[in-house]
Amino acid sequence: MSRQYIANLKSGNQVEGVFLVLKKEIRETKDKKPYLNLQLADKSGCIDAKKWDASTSLYNSFNSDGFIRIKGTVETFNNSLQIKLLEITPVSESEVQMDEFVQSTEKNVPEMLAELKEIIRSVKDPYLSKLLISFFTDKSFVTAFCAAPAATQNHHAFLGGLLEHVLSVTKLAVNFSGFYPVVKKDLLITGAILHDIGKIRELSYERSFQYTDEGLLTGHLISGVLMVNEKASKIEGFPGEHLNVLLHLILSHHGEYEWGSPVKPGTPEAIALHYLDNLDAKMQGALKAISNHKDDSSAWTDYVRMFERRLYKK
Predict the structure, then answer these.
(1) How far does the signal peptide extend, from start to end residue (predicted)?
(2) In this structure, are 148 and 247 located in the same domain?
């Protein structure tokens, strides 16, 4: 029997297979009967699932971030699909193929990395060039940078997502700088490449995408600043003003205090980076929402949290 991926499920389907457990909790019905409320995933997406008349022993038999084999029926509830679970059996990690559960970029990682390195070679400022080279000749950094997602769910939430997002923002920065010669091109490019490097410390991504302790305690902006400061400190004569404006780019790229930036963009390059970063994230989020909506009878997606509205698909 071929694998049934979540993205292909339709209401009424009988489903049987192994899935990754993203979330699990035990709840009670109005009649005080316990049931399991789960969120299951594979590389194509995630779906809610419920097991009625469940026991505490069944709840304790598997872990969140573990694997279960299920039998069930796909139903529609509040205009969304969910699985009514009939059977649940815990499955050992040794029995699964991980590439079926963790989504990866559809683009060629070595080609994306090569394209980013080509842009790095175009940076003329000697100090910014040395800084970028110090990162991209660091094998452990490059390995993590090429594997990490850019987020846990909203945009580029897949292996290689960080590289894909950074390359897109950097290419936008290259083109943008041609329209505004007053913008310091080398600084904007460097900020675009380094603005999200803290994600490699903020996120864990061996199975599902979760926040690390460092990510929850400090976040990727602070982690990125620490990483840049460490590399810059090893470059003899690295100008203090260069470092200040570059760190400002990283700290301000979310744009607003309520979006996590401790400072708002205060230079032309920082203003540009904020909007270019936001543009790429929003476009990827919109295209993902449209692609994932499988109801061909509707010209509109379901409500998309990122945009707080439905999107027109045609």
Answers:
(1) none
(2) yes
